[in-house]
Hints:
- The protein is α/β, with parallel strands linked by helices.
- It has 2 domains: 3-172, no CATH class; 235-321, no CATH class.
- It contains 14 helices and 7 strands.
- The protein has helices at 3-18, 56-60, 76-99, 121-126, 133-136, 164-167, 172-184, 190-207, 214-260, 262-282, 287-291, 293-296, 301-310, 313-321; strands at residues 22-30, 35-43, 65-69, 111-116, 130-131, 140-142, 149-153.
- A 7-stranded mixed beta sheet has the order 1-2-3-4-7-6-5, sandwiched between helices.
- α1 (3-18) packs antiparallel against α8.
- The chain is elongated.
Amino acid sequence: MTRFPYDQFAKDYLQELLLPLGKVETSRQVAAEVREIDVYFAPSPQPSNNTIPLGLLGRFAATAALFEPFRNAATKSEIRGCLHKLFDVFTDLERQAKRNNTRVYEIELPRLWILSPTASVSLLDGFGARLDEDNWGAGVYFLADFFKTAIVAIHQLPRTEETLWLRILGKGRVQQQAIDELEALPENNPLRSKAIDLLVNLKTTLEIGQNVDQEDRNLIMRLSPIYEQRLAEARQEGIQQGIQIYEQRLAEARQEGQQQGMQQGIQRERRITIENLLRVRFGTLDEELVAIIEPMLVLPPEEFTGLLLQSSREELLARFRQT
């Protein structure tokens, strides 16, 4: 996978999850030589009591944080680049404090969380990264204290509810298992809906992209049933909205009919409803679409609404040209 589609998904995903907890900035620029931090997070001074727990990700967000998610295993060069951005942030904060005649305390400096789908033993050893399983469990490796950095090896995280929101950013089987768990959450869970919507957007972006590899194709296949379900829900919602609009217009037409004649008012509102739905589906009304409005007027609202929202242009023209 090229970095961009996943990079954008990861930024949007973390922003949606962390926003209830504090201020979130994506693509924040630092230093004279412009570098971008994927996600910069600052917790709210007074956290809301209505936020949904984010498990291990929520613990990461207990203090100011930089999040740098990677689709493929982060290389030593990429990790050095992340550290460079972190130090630029430190320098910027200290410079601002000096201008304001204040002081930056160590506890106020953000911590860098590098989210990597995998991490080799040699890479972790090269950075002196060590586990702190008593406090953080498996998969979270900390550099020396003054670096204020941790490498999260997502494939090593235990498969628990506590780690779900991080494993969604994993790869291969780890990510697909997390998607299974995400679907199994209660439908009224707002984070479930947001995450699924972002995954569906990622699927669409991947499908129209170039150089799609086998990993991408597997992810597209896994997300296809979710996409179809979302599409069916959207269609059903559109039908219900269409019927509601029609009923509202019908009530207005009946009132108008008291002055102009009931049937004339109803026909006028049916025509307006059909025209509006055609514009929603196809953008503009050309001669071919205008020609099928008249034969559609004889149908009951629930029937023409369903046809207009679910049929293609070609299907509509083929059916009503024969009428």
